[in-house]
Amino acid sequence: MAHLNFSDFYQVPDLKFNIQKMRSDLDKILQKKGFKSPKGVTNFGAISLNQIPNDDSSIAGNNIRGIYWTIPDEKGKEVVRDVPIDESKYTQIVPEFKNTYFNEVYETLKKKFKLGRVRLLLKEPRSTLSWHKDPEPRLHIPIITNLGCSMVIENIAKHLPADGHVTITNNTKYHNFFNGGEQARVHLVACVLENPFK
Ligand SMILES: [Fe+2]
Fold first, then answer.
1. CA of 126 to the centre of ligand 1 (A)
2. Is the pLDDT of residue 180 over 70?
3. Spatial CA neighbour of 193 closest among 129, 139, 120
4. What percent of the chain stands above pLDDT 70?
5. Domain containing 70: what range?
6. CA 130 – ligand 1 centroid, Å
7. Does some domain include residue 65?
8. What is the mean pLDDT of residues 158-181?
9. pLDDT by residue (tens digit) across 38-48?
10. Crossing angle of helices 101-112/19-32, nearest 10°?
11. Which of 64, 71, 108, 184 could form a disulfide with 46 if both were Cys (CB 3.0 to 4.6 A apart)?
């Protein structure tokens, strides 16, 4: 049997964050605001961590999700959904996160990577995304997860543990994320504007 190739999952070396601190600050954030979805969208929830400076609309409506391509049915034809995002303009931390550990995480990540939007993404129990691809790779820090959670890129699935490590995934290929557990999954997810997979 051929060996599985995990080259679309890049674990960043020498970088590890404190997950307990992230979890306790997530609890504090959730007391102030909840996960949001664009109107009519199911199985998607996000809290934006950064925004276009002084522009609340940049983290409202469809801007919390953004453009992607999907193959919706048996015809196998690719279609485009949602709105394009000007990722590089997202440079300001959202005020609620300012005095939290997330600010430190954001500053550290910004020094190492060219980032666009940074969001906390919810995957509800027993839910899945569409089969889709994004304009750019994504950086993941799992905060709350369970063994029934996996990212699937083309035909390769990988569970990403909440151990403080950072993984960049090649979301320019077709992929999905499913949570087969009975507990909500929360990841910090950032758009990475320099593609390490090219
Ligand atoms: Fe995606």
1. 17
2. yes
3. 139
4. 99
5. 9-31+51-137+155-184
6. 8
7. yes
8. 98
9. 988 988 999 99
10. 120
11. 64
